[in-house]
From TrEMBL:
Enzyme class label: lyase
GO biological process, one term: L-leucine catabolic process
Protein's UniProt name: hydroxymethylglutaryl-CoA lyase
Organism whose genome encodes this protein: Bradyrhizobium neotropicale
One Pfam family recorded for the sequence: HMGL-like
Domain of life, per lineage: Bacteria
CDD domains in the cross-refs: DRE_TIM_HMGL
Length: 303
């Protein structure tokens, strides 16, 4: 359990993609700068998808260009197809993420094609990335339940993870998109996937809709998974997953890990400042329990 954990910050992408209040390119860049300054050195900063589908991620090219001066950090962007890959590369992307779903219903709603068709769309992306020396991360959505198709069998997740792995993804991020999972189910799913892919190459991407994310992360850590996707302030959700709230909050993950004696290298004060600033721009308080508690503590101390 004491092995190091790598946190991939999702706030500027998964977080902001589902926020109603528009956030300017300058503010998105400043958010990324603040997150890196807090010690989050891997940040997903945008998505090269249809601006009609996700207007919040329009101008991701400007965001990616705008953060390129930041040293010592790795920036990820989503690409659904070759068109997205080309645009991401033109903006300087060195790591891209393809995203598939464990269910047909979600695949259709999210990227307007079947799971098999999505894999066909990824193949030219993978081939070009190999030639270009670009790393590709692979997401699977709905690994613990689908808003359209209901229950998802661990084998369906394991099979798709195997396909993405065979295509050349360096890491597979397993998404509980609608946050319905519980620890035993999370363990079963991770065991099924890690039967063919080393746990060191898996990531947990759990949304906190039902308040189960930290418990599920702990269960996954017991299975040897050491990469966690989280969003500052618990921002966001998925526009195509009705009712889904944001990723588990980065503050909550950092608090849990540090409390367990696992050093994250993340400065909680700076992270809280980044969260408070984006929350101010969005006009609402952070969803993170830890951010809420720390803000209340500060208020008490100054009153
Ligand atoms: P499509 O309709 O199948 O694609 O959309 P198409 O090739 O038929 O093109 C339709 C239009 O989209 C055309 O424009 C294309 O040029 C354009 P039009 O002629 O109508 O003006 N287009 C693009 N534009 C920009 N960038 C592109 C691109 N490709 C085509 N790359 C597509 C397919 C995937 C593009 C569309 O369905 C889409 O953008 N969907 C949004 C998907 C998305 O961003 N979802 C949220 C992120 S995934 C997520 O949150 C889950 C995750 O966090 C894990 C988890 O929690 O589970 C990762
Ligand atoms: Mg997500």
């Amino acid at each position: 359990m004491s092995d190091p954990v790598r946190i991939i910050e999702m706030g500027p992408r998964d977080g902001l993609q589902n926020e109603k209040t528009p956030v300017s390119v300058e503010a998105r860049i400043a958010f990324v700068e603040a997150l890196v300054a807090a010690g989050l050195n891997t940040v997903e900063v945008g998505a090269f998808v249809s601006a009609k589908a996700i207007p919040q991620m329009a101008s991701s090219d400007a965001v990616l260009r705008g953060v390129s001066h930041i040293e010592g950090a790795e920036f990820h962007v989503l690409v659904p197809n070759e068109k997205g890959y080309e645009a991401a590369r033109a903006a300087g992307a060195k790591v891209v993420s393809v995203f598939a779903a464990a269910s047909e219903g979600f695949s259709r709603a999210n990227i307007n094609c079947s799971v098999a068709e999505s894999i066909e769309r990824f193949k030219p992306v993978m081939a070009r990335a190999r030639t270009d020396g670009v790393k590709v991360r692979g997401y699977i959505s709905c690994v613990l339940g689908c808003p359209f198709d209901g229950e998802i069998k661990p084998k369906a997740v394991a099979d798709l993870a195997g396909t993405l792995w065979d295509l050349g993804c360096y890491e597979i991020s397993l998404g509980d998109t609608i946050g319905v999972g519980t620890p035993t189910k999370a363990k079963e799913m991770l065991r099924a996937v890690s039967a063919s892919i080393p746990a060191a190459h898996l990531a947990m991407h759990f949304h906190d809709t039902y308040g189960q994310a930290l418990a599920n992360l702990y269960a996954g850590m017991e299975e040897g998974v050491r990469v966690i996707d989280s969003a500052a302030g618990g921002l966001g959700g998925c526009p195509y997953a009705p009712g889904a709230t944001g990723n588990v909050a980065t503050e909550d993950v950092v608090y849990m890990l540090e409390g367990m004696g696992i050093s994250t290298g993340i400065d909680m004060e700076k992270l809280l400042a980044a969260t408070n600033e984006i929350s101010r721009l969005l006009g609402r308080p952070p969803a993170s329990r830890v951010a809420t508690a720390l803000n209340a503590k500060k208020k008490r101390a100054t009153s």
